[in-house]
Amino acid sequence: MDRRTARLLNGVLALCCLALVFTAVYPFTTVDTHSKNPVDERFTVPESDEYRATGAILADSETALEFEGAVTADGGRYLFINEGAVRTEQFQASPGDPVYRRIVVEDGGSTDRRREWIQSDTERELLRESRTDDAVTFIVKQDATDLADDVSGAASVIVRSLYVLGYKQEADTTQGATVYEPKNGWYEGVEPYHINGATGKVRSIGDTTDVRSATVTWDQTRPAGTYAELALVRLTGDAPKTYDLSFEFESGETTVSRPSWVTDNRTEA
What we know:
- By secondary structure, this protein is α+β, with helices and mostly antiparallel strands.
- 20% of the residues lie in helices and 39% in strands.
- Strand 3 and strand 4 form a beta hairpin.
């Protein structure tokens, strides 16, 4: 092999090594999160005078947030939120009527703080408090304007949690919907992260971004801005964390029943 050929081969090898080092230090491309879309192109909760919605977020198979809500045309409102150690159920007969709230707290160390929070506002009235071996239950009556705002807010928390991913869009004319599929890749946020194993679909109403349903699963490693950092975080920690998100929105006629615990009867703890 002559010197010229040897120098050429050495140069090629050097470039290959440089490329490998660069790849370990920084990924070639990043994916834009859905949150970077213009405001009018982001996923939203549909607007309707009467609807029922459900949603949940699981992190490594444990409930991070779960909700069920309903708004009726004749005024009834209902909202259930499960945050793991705290479950809250709310009912309002019509806008402007009192909101009745049942709060079940399984974390015994936080019950005193919860009671203080309830009693710190003159618009809240603690009607009843009961205890079991596993939990403390508070029944609260509160003056409020319209519980429908809280129902919509809970739905928005689920829908906006979809923003951490990017999506590719495809039309689904057979169902009058637009379908979005999540993307794997490198993402930039407060700290960079990596998404893999992303599956599922987000279906919006027609050609809008109003979400009718979503079932999305993904594995997230954070922080991970490079291949080297990705490997290190996975080697030394419990990453990746698996997220499962689901959401359903059904507009149209629905009913809300008054729960049996909704009374003004008072008992002492």
